[in-house]
Automatic annotation (TrEMBL):
It comes from Carya illinoinensis (Pecan). Keywords: Repeat. GO terms for molecular function: RNA binding; zinc ion binding. This is DYW domain-containing protein. The keyword Repeat applies.
Length: 618
DNA sequence: GTAGGGTTAG
């Protein structure tokens, strides 16, 4: 990466000239006290508060200029380090490194402070590295405190080659035996794409691992979605006798959440209680998120109600959790309760709220809150927010309105929004429009498998069988592979994973017999397989067979075989549940008298006595 | 004087 390219951009952003002339001119007469005293007063000012809002920033800038301290690096570094506002840091660094600044004052501490300020603020990681390079250019030595900042910035940029060159510098300067540096190195490597092996190498080479090292490594696995490995590493950590702290437990819970492993999550909770791990807000938030996403949203709600201190993350987790379970009314009223409690919603909270409205058909509520976003809360809606709105209109069957909405959007619709529209066109008979949008989408995204599936489904509904067959050929020609659907289930502290047509389980013969029996019972109960969704070019009977071997059905058969009658079944799908599995599961819940809780990619389905909580909107 | 690992959505 070229950091030399950053400087001109940096200077443009800061625009030194404007700042200097628009504020009060610094005539010598306006400086009434001695420079030294002013410097002290100014430093004391920053001690008391952080300058992270714009009015405060402007005020402080004027103040600095009035006192004639605009070229005093000490004052300016302090200013930068107490601020989390990027403009403020830019302002400070532009003066510190301006041509008339006193370079004799440049030292390691000064650079470390500026680098830290940039490394801690999002969207300024490049600048942190730019000033690290500048530091070396000025002949100022980096010390062991410099590297955690620099490595953190590199982690944010996710560039492996850069990380490796920094690693080289660390070794050359002899800071590679410092625990803080090593731990940050694990974090840096595991954040860069393709860096996990390097992270593990650092981790394995460390003479003494503390809870931070373990957490850094576990966190790396969690970020990659390697949740089973993360849990495995946690078990190893316990075996070697390192006590996990609250951050380790946040990561463990995060892995449970990813797996949808409720039993494991409950175990983690009791472990926290037993080991008296400090339950801070972040840990409570992770617990709420885990319970909501592992299927027990009532427990999540209970934890939330018992919290003494809540952050926006706590509110958002529980709002999004309720939305995911189709409990939109409760989600919306909780959002309104939050506003009433004086907690300002952020962009993420709005996504939770809008998805709640969308999943529960609350169109008017959704529109009202969407309008309030910009007007009342000054949050500019992002494509995700527009996406929620499109989704909401489509689910409510207002396809024409959804199409109008997209036309009027100030942002270009992304493929996700287009796919939402296409599904709605398919469902509500706007086949010609759907076909056109899909063709356009395939031109933009030719390697995305689900675009072809959408087109195939549209052709099936139009009875254009020849065109439908052709799609399969196109997909084969392009060498596209379907993401295999898989379903997980937890049984006796063990996690079982099924893929379609799976024969790797020891019990597979019994499972397939059970699937066949289920098929017979389903037909007797009046269920008709939805074969039009099968993309393969095979005859109807084989299609039924393909549907019966869906991972979800295998997992349900496995659960019926291995759990006592009447107990609920919980399964986790990696993709969205297919139409056929959805209607079959409704029948299964009735025939076998089981409550079946399915988590798919988007939300939860609670099947009971032949009905699903999603009311067929999903 | 300065340092390490974490939670919400998509």
């Amino acid at each position: 990466m070229q950091f030399s390219a950053i400087r001109p951009k940096l200077l443009r952003t800061i625009n030194v000239a404007t700042v200097t002339t628009s504020s009060s001119p610094h005539h010598p007469s306006s400086v009434t006290t001695s420079k030294r005293a002013a410097e002290q007063r100014c430093l004391a000012l920053f001690q008391d508060h952080t300058c992270n809002t714009f009015p405060k920033l402007a005020q402080t800038q004027t103040h600095i200029l009035k006192l004639g301290l605009h070229n005093n690096p000490l004052v300016l570094t302090k200013f930068a380090s107490t601020s989390s506002d990027l403009d403020a840091i830019d302002y400070a660094s532009s003066f510190i490194f301006s041509p008339d600044a006193d370079t004799r004052l440049y030292d390691t501490f000064l650079f470390n402070t500026i680098i830290r300020a940039y490394a801690q603020t999002s969207q300024s990681k490049e600048r942190a590295l730019y000033f690290y390079n500048a530091m070396l250019d000025y002949g100022v030595w980096a010390n062991k405190f410099t590297y955690p900042f620099v490595l953190k910035a590199c982690a944010g940029l996710r560039v492996l080659s850069l990380g490796q060159s920094l690693h080289g510098s660390v070794v050359k300067l002899g800071f590679d035996d410092d625990a803080h540096v090593q731990n940050t190195m694990i974090h840096m490597y595991s954040s860069c794409s393709g860096g996990i092996e390097f992270a593990r190498k650092v981790f394995d080479g460390m003479p003494k691992l503390d809870s931070v090292s373990w957490s850094a490594m576990i966190g790396g696995y969690v970020r990659l979605g390697w949740s089973t490995d993360a849990i495995g590493l946690f078990r190893k950590m316990q075996m070697v006798g390192v006590r996990p702290d609250e951050i380790t437990m946040v990561l463990v819970l995060s892995a449970c959440t990813d797996l949808g492993a409720l039993e494991l999550g409950k175990w983690a909770e009791s472990y926290i209680e037993k080991e008296r791990v400090q339950k801070n807000v972040e840990l409570c938030n992770a617990l709420i998120d885990m319970f909501a996403k592992c299927g027990d949203v009532d427990k999540a709600l209970k934890l939330f109600r018992n919290m003494s201190e809540r952050t926006i993350v706590s509110w958002t987790s529980v709002i999004a959790g309720l939305a995911m379970h189709g409990r939109g009314f409760e989600a919306v009223s909780l959002f309104e309760e939050m506003i009433g409690a004086g907690v300002a919603p952020d962009d993420v909270a709005f996504i939770g709220l809008l998805s709640a409205c969308s999943h529960s058909g609350l169109v008017e509520k959704g529109r009202k809150h969407f309008d309030s976003m910009a007007k009342k809360f000054k949050i500019v809606p992002r494509i995700e927010h527009y996406g929620c709105m499109v989704d909401m209109l489509c689910r409510a069957g207002q396809v024409k309105e959804a199409l109008e909405f997209v036309k009027k959007m100030p942002i270009k619709p992304n493929p996700i929004v287009l796919r939402t529209l296409i599904s709605a066109c398919h469902a509500h008979g706007e086949l010609k429009i759907g076909e056109n949008i899909t063709k356009q989408l395939i031109r933009n995204e030719p390697m995305h498998e689900s675009n072809y599936v959408l087109l195939s489904n549209i052709y099936a509904k139009m009875s254009h069988w020849d065109k439908k067959t052709k799609i399969r050929e196109v997909m084969d020609k392009k060498g596209m592979t379907k993401t295999p659907g898989s379903t997980m289930i937890e049984l006796d502290n063990e996690i079982y994973e099924f893929v379609a047509g799976d024969k790797s389980q020891r019990q597979y013969k019994e499972i397939y017999e059970m699937v066949d029996e289920m098929g017979r019972e389903l037909k007797r109960a009046g269920y008709a397989p939805t074969t039009s969704e099968v993309l393969l070019d095979i005859d109807e009977e084989d299609k039924e067979d393909a549907l019966n071997r869906h991972s979800e059905k295998l997992a349900i058969a496995f659960a019926l075989l291995n759990t006592p009658p009447g107990t609920p079944i919980r399964i986790v799908k990696n993709l969205r549940v297919c139409n056929d599995c959805h209607s079959a599961t409704k029948f299964i819940s009735k025939i076998y008298n089981r409550e079946i809780v399915v988590r798919d990619r988007n939300r939860f389905h609670h099947f009971k006595e032949g009905f699903c909580s999603c009311k067929d909107f999903w």
